[in-house]
């Protein structure tokens, strides 16, 4: 009986995860309908289109990183994919690796220390209260994480791979060299036209949010900001 209960519990978790992915897929379809002119920040880069990745690419990423990828990230990549998402969109595992390894090589060359993706992430629950008030100072790149999204300039969204925050998202900015300023990821921006009444405020995301909470929080922000119907004559912009 215990085995049966365990199986049913596991099945329930999988069903919930599938429902989350389907909800994200539906929200992306709604964003394509309501934002044909790509008003949302960064949306012109991905156009709300996602491409699933294969198991082999995820396995290669894990082998290179030397640490298992969070289950939620694997599921999102396999079933929804890279492309659409907050800021300029989610990178594929290969793109995340390229960004991380490039910066890690620069860091090791200049600082004389390797960056270890399987090492302990340098922020813990004890740091969270202070980080809510002002950014935590830790180098970037650092151990125990990988970038999954570029926010523009020298800002990244980072997926934690190890420790108590594994599977959760942090924001990091580098203004000088490798000196990173870290915050639990905030709700990513949508669209707001300056001078117009701001759309309703939304509650903050959990601190720090899971990958799905972060992605869904972005979609909610965008759909709150955009009009229910696309503006007349706002045909999709095909210019790259």
UniProtKB/TrEMBL annotation:
Coiled coil: none annotated. Residues 52-217 form the Knr4/Smi1-like domain. It comes from Gemmata obscuriglobus. SMART domains: SMI1_KNR4. This is SMI1/KNR4 family protein. Transmembrane segments: none annotated. It comes from the Bacteria. InterPro entries: Knr4/Smi1-like_dom, Knr4/Smi1-like_sf. Pfam families: SMI1_KNR4.
